[in-house]
């Protein structure tokens, strides 16, 4: 607990400085002074505290091409301070060791058997992490773990309530995924669990296609359609953490029945199954099957072209509705929506122009993820770093470390 | 500018204490100590500062029925410290003098000629304020002015861009309503301007049907359908302040053309015009005409009943979509949607149950406004008080007052 206003302000400033170099990389003291609104001596003292804690170091900048003695830069100690980032995707499991600053230092991938519960992924993920840990330098400091899970996540306890394979009823008993993962990893504190689209949105907002924007829609296509929505710089989670279920926004009252019990959900028009059904491949699933249709459309096959155009039209339709609600600066098309958007962007834009109010779309950019398929992992790493950045010395102090190394 | 961390903390605490009594009314020092997490002597010093500035006073509580010497309570000086709250509604203009604490001390209403620009309301509103001002005690301190405007409002400058009467093109040149109103009122600082549904949402969230909830949809029906959306305790405004345009969410792709250029917008199914058209009163407009249909339906007239049922069904449809997006704790039906919801709540609920995901609606309450038609005025007053509550002594100090009394 901070014991005085001065100490509270100092801790806040330490967090602000560490967050700045975490997000922007190596930064000169002059820039830190200007950007954080603090004086030179304060920046010097804060940097010294963070360096003593092993969180940053100072060094010469990369070649600037300018003459004269270069000013030193403050850098996050990316190879020493790290978090584990995990993702439970529809058809695979991923684990990465991510350094402070956001670089993926190491990663592992495993298949996920179709139709399995998220809880079934725990053993595999723990094995991936333990394997990475054997290759981690002994001097490294683990500061946290974050998990991205496709499906529905409740914020308070990281419980996964619905995932795409849950079937029509949709609701599972709710295994406490975070707790179980924490136990399997041998961590004192369970990992933070986030919805995959939410954490991918966070990643693209932090250091991707939506950097610098405060109002962002990140749309993610896999077996379903998810969204991470950032409004006023903050994630829209809703009361229980179930916000952003754009896939179950009804766009076509006369449409097909949806697995959720409703009819004509956005997912039933632009989801993987809809696309594959429209090319006569009812039984097929997965990203590769979607990409095959997109490629066929690009080759000029009429049935595939019509199917892609159908998706593009309804994609623009739903985006227009969301733009009227959120007046965003950027919409980012992630997962399989990336390829579907790129395959017929003209149609998506045409529908959007027709349906979105001019004032709601006037500064809108349509983008694809800069981080590509790594967005969920990079976002999960942001969850892992959150505590450290909120109070650097508290978390980094080895005497008070909440994460033990996995056995 | 605060000159030290201690001073910054003190100002923050002054704001927190004043905001607490503004929202909760007379509060004992013991409760303030507990709720603000400060010690007794700090609460005493802060109260003394606020009392010296004329913002609060201390006195005996109302009769408690308990024996013993009652503890003193801290009260906002509602009759001394006030703001002006204005609303530009579809068919009327309102002005109120609202005391710190939220009580309406005085108010005036005027007709608004149909189809006029918001800018045309300035002279009338200024006259209403000046008339109230003549009846205001000389010792009163005016701390700000807020305006609620039906239509679309851009946040940065309070410019009104679209209003229901703007017709298909929708976009006006954008009169700087706030500046013009400030000039007409003789205020040094222009009033803060907010979208009517946004400020009504703020009012119901602050001291109405949605108090205590962080995720709220306030829906407002008049000539159009507007919404004030609160996510994570904060208003969703979008990039330019145009968020929440739920009336132009397309719910029925096969529906009628909408004034916005799209087709099948929510407004074309549940708006005033849709209801009146469905009972064969194409030419009629206004709240009274809507109420006449609702009353006819309650009397059992079949055509009116069918029209109200149509609205209820599509009302539930749109609310279900929004619930899946925002996972709110409360939906509040305001304006003419209040009566329409109450007239056939069974149908609204049935549709909602069928379409909203169980996890997204599991703690949902459907409510009507506690503040009724005063919600926009009470919300506009919150805009007026915002600066005072952010930094009480800066704003209340007569030597630094930014609002002069109207001439």
Automatic annotation (TrEMBL), chains A, B:
It comes from the Bacteria. InterPro entries: ATPase_NBD, ROK, WH-like_DNA-bd_sf, WH_DNA-bd_sf. SUPFAM superfamilies: Actin-like ATPase domain, Winged helix' DNA-binding domain. Pfam families: ROK (PF00480). Belongs to the ROK (NagC/XylR) family. This is ROK family protein. It comes from Dactylosporangium fulvum.
């Amino acid at each position: 607990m901070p014991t005085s206003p001065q100490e509270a302000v100092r801790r806040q400033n330490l967090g602000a400085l560490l967050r700045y170099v975490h997000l922007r990389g190596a930064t000169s003291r002059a820039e830190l002074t200007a950007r954080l609104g603090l004086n030179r001596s304060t920046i010097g003292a804060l940097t010294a505290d963070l360096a003593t804690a092993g969180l940053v170091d100072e060094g010469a900048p990369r070649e600037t091409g300018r003459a004269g003695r270069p000013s030193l830069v403050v850098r996050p100690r990316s190879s020493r301070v790290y978090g584990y980032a995990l993702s439970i995707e529809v058809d695979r499991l991923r684990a990465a060791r991510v350094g402070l600053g956001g670089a993926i230092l190491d990663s592992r991938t495993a298949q996920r058997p179709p139709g399995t519960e998220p809880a079934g992924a725990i053993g595999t993920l723990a094995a991936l992490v333990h394997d990475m840990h054997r290759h981690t330098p002994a001097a490294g400091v683990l500061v946290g773990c974050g998990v991205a899970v496709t499906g529905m996540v409740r914020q308070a306890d990281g419980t996964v309530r619905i995932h795409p394979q849950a079937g029509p009823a949709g609701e599972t008993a709710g295994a406490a995924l975070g707790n179980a993962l924490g136990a399997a990893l041998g961590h004192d504190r369970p990992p933070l669990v986030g919805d995959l689209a939410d954490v991918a949105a966070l990643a693209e907002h932090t250091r991707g296609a939506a950097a610098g924007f405060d109002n962002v829609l990140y749309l993610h296509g896999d077996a379903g359609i998810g969204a991470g929505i950032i409004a006023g710089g903050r994630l829209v989670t809703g009361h229980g953490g179930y916000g952003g279920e754009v896939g179950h926004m009804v766009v076509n009252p006369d449409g097909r029945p949806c697995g959720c019990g409703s009819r004509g959900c956005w997912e039933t028009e632009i989801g993987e199954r809809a696309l594959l059904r429209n090319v006569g491949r009812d039984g097929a699933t997965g990203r590769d099957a979607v990409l095959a249709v997109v490629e066929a459309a690009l080759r000029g096959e009429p049935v595939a072209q019509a199917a892609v155009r159908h998706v593009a039209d309804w994609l623009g339709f739903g985006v227009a509705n969301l733009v009227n609600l959120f007046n965003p600066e950027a919409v980012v098309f992630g997962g399989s929506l990336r390829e579907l958007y790129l395959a017929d962007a003209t149609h998506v834009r045409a529908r959007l122009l027709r349906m979105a109010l001019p004032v709601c779309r006037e500064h809108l950019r349509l983008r694809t993820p800069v981080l590509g398929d790594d967005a969920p992992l990079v976002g999960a790493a942001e969850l892992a770093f959150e505590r450290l950045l909120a109070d650097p010395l508290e978390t980094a102090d080895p005497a008070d470390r909440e994460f033990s190394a996995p056995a």
